[in-house]
Amino acid sequence: MVVKRKVSSLRKKRILLLSEGFGKGHTQAAHALSVDLRQHSSEIITRVIELGAFLHPTLAPWVFSAYRRTVTSQPKLYGMLYRNQYKKSLNRMAGLVLHRIFYAQTKAVIKQLKPDIIVCTHPFPSIIVSRLKRAGLSVPLFTVITDYDVHGTWIDPAVDKYLVSTPAVRERLLKHGVPETHVEVTGIPVHPNFRRQHNKEQIRNEFGLKPMPTVMVMGGGWGVFKKEELLTYIATWSEKVQLLICLGTNEKARHQLLEEEVFRHPNVHLIGFTREINKLMDVSDLLITKPGGMTCTEAMAKGIPMLFYSAIPGQEEKNCEYFQEQGYGQMITSMEMIDHWFKLLLEQYPELLKRRSDIRSNQKFCAQDCSSAIIQYLKLSDKRPYIQSSTKTPIIQWY
Length: 399
Fold this sequence. Notes:
2 domains; transferase; 6-stranded parallel β-sheet; Rossmann fold; 45% helix; 16 helices; alpha/beta; 14% strand
């Protein structure tokens, strides 16, 4: 049972969460934190905004599409750019571009909503709000780093507090000159549903699944369907292992897979868009996925061992290193590794269940720690003056 914490205030505290649509993990983290904050206190209201899509709904899809194409078709180029800028903040030219595109409109959004605190789960909105703070904005800024490493673009002296995944990320920030008091290790926020255990029999009935060893495959158009050989090999195990292949909104991939007989086997389930990944994880014994920070954190909360493929050079490689070091997963280096894990499912299932229990019990940070850090800051900041609002009627509403 969630205990509601009262945050004393003359009105409800307003928390504005800003993200960007470069991959889904950043916005998932923002929504997860939003839900958790509202569950913790009835005196809090939240609003999640993907800044680019909200301010520039025509331009943003083109930008996100170009990013996606670069990451999937030119991963080495992306990795080179990532490493070249690894220890640097955003360069002057890129900063000016963000300033021209977002500065005035973001300022107007903040004026209308009058948040008590702004939380950013992507470096771009964090950069923009930091610039506004240097120009006089008095709203506290928290930045949640949603990977298991920190790139230089996250770092700005105007950030009041960083909420990070591990002590190692904290140490990297300190080496960059961030004061100790400005960094708190909280883990990455996940939706409360990923911290709950659901009835497996009910889930199997709901999705038409069998009570047999089950492997979940995630990645959508971002990777696994570019690795046709890998996916086809996994599907050859369908006589002995139940497969849940999560496609999201990728209908093109669904049609392509259904053209092959191996993917029409009754033990192969092609899952479209669903908000119940948390339930499917409960009935899965192994997850095959790209090592995105959010997906891996959700799987870790459920205690599922992971196999990784096609790590994007940069943050996903660092995520992969972390989860391998912690014993939560392995990078797929050969088809023999898939054979090894699938045989474990069939021959040493109790051992795999113990591994799952160990993953859950060995987690050092609770995802609720992010919410607690923000709520604690709000309690300490009750007397902070609000920024002045425009006299015009707001066109943006709180939830």
